[in-house]
Amino acid sequence: MKKISLALGILIGYLPFSAADCNQLHALLPGKVFFEPSEIYNASISSYFPLQGRLSPTCILRPESAKDVSLAVKTLARKRSTHFAIRSGGHSPNHGFSNIDDGVTIDLRSMNDIALSKDWKIARVQSGAVWGDVYPVTDQVGVSVIGGRGGTVGTGGFITGGGISAFSRRRGWGCDNVVNFQVVLASGEIVDANAAHNKDLFRALKGGQNNFGVVTRIDLMTHEQSPFLGGAILYPKEAFDATLDAFTEYMNRSTFDPDELAELSYTYVGGDQSFSLLLNTFHSGSVQSPNSLQRWTSIQPQISSTVRTTNMSKKLQPSSCKVYADLKRVMYGTTSVGISPTIMKKAYTLWEAAVNDTLSRISGMNSAFIIQPTPPPPKSFANSLGFGNAAVPEADSVIVLLAHNWDSEADSKVVEDRTYELIREINNAAADEHVEERFRYLNYAASKQKIFDGYGQASKAFLRKVARKYDPDGVFQRQVKGGFKVF
Ligand SMILES: Cc1cc2nc3c(=O)[nH]c(=O)nc-3n(C[C@H](O)[C@H](O)[C@H](O)COP(=O)(O)OP(=O)(O)OC[C@H]3O[C@@H](n4cnc5c(N)ncnc54)[C@H](O)[C@@H]3O)c2cc1C
């Protein structure tokens, strides 16, 4: 009898996935599984940020608790032919990373509770919450967290991929400000990962994203934060030379100001074939008029400026950068370079050439070349991003994000090919100047980029070991197809 049920179990495990499996999920979690064309199903699909994220899962699960996620993962893991996707804010531009055709999408957005501890030192955030939900809760008591700069970005993807915030030059990556992850493993077990329990999983989740389980709650350290200076300055092309020089100076190790985070988005807008620069600057120190900000405010000409005293809830108001427009195909790609007197101008020139020779011919194209400093490595508990404690990337290393959006799927291959080529060109220019870097930021990366190689061999081996330990059957490697995989 035992043998027959074992054989049956194995057979079921390999039967093809079908709508009946979604019905089974529906029976286990009534009222939480949705099919096309229900209103909730359609609303979930149309809420993906990039157009290509809007796939057609067989059903969508909207869990309301870690227990729901546990029951679902246990059920889905039983049948190897079932594929599923994990979705928090749905902002990944990579095809199939947080949604799926023919399978189950676990849309975590009903799990969006945010609670502050009594002393306000910890914010407990369910991983379906977006940053625009978090800051109003923290701002009202004068604290903040290391979270996203876009209100609709999900906490789940942002934190597990690293996370660069307005305060990151001083306070590091978002993931390094986590004190505990609540995680549902492939077995369905709900565990905590922190500096005392499941330490290896705790470290792996800081940069390893969806390779180990479904994160259901993130406990974040808060820090005191009074209103700070921040805003955007929009410059015309005539100011580009001066801003690239100013950015190189801003990265100077001897004078850098850890309270200031500057993100420069050089943007091409296809509609009017214009180039402009949107500088987002945050100064979180107590100084009223910091010298470092004058570096930007003194550059002329400017089209507009919104630099003012603000807080994160206000700062999240919609960006004027047209690269973030809705209902478009989106591609991100990234590289990192060290700083030298001329590398920023060389990299910018390569991007402008790519716009002129190829991207500007694409219908509806908006493209951006975005640069910002790499956050410092953690002072205490390690993450998996691969920087040593002695590294000073906040002064030495620049993360380059190439972001495009455009209209038609027919143009996607041309955009992708030119973006990968541009990354190679920037890397070659960096190599010529001896400032080539290995690290690639996962949350900005295109799907073919080798993220975990960029963390270094030791970190990659560590991530593989942790994946084998917590998910011995490889559920999150094989059944959750989307995402950067450690194997
Ligand atoms: C408008 C915009 C603004 C941005 N601003 C910033 C910024 O300020 N700083 C920055 O660092 N990045 C920023 N990003 C990049 C952003 O961090 C990544 O796109 C991030 O992965 C988005 O997370 P998400 O939860 O919204 O995405 P999703 O598409 O839902 O998920 C991304 C990946 O994470 C996995 N994942 C999501 N939730 C979980 C979970 N709970 N458990 C396990 N795996 C999970 C998914 O399976 C998927 O592979 C921005 C992106 C956009 C589009």
Automatic annotation (TrEMBL):
PROSITE patterns: FAD_PCMH (PS51387). GO terms for molecular function: FAD binding; oxidoreductase activity. Keywords: FAD, Flavoprotein, Oxidoreductase, Signal. It holds the Pfam family FAD_binding_4. The keyword Nucleotidyltransferase does not apply. Residues 53-225 form the FAD-binding PCMH-type domain. Coiled coil: none annotated. Residues 1-20 form the signal peptide. Belongs to the oxygen-dependent FAD-linked oxidoreductase family. This is FAD-binding domain-containing protein.
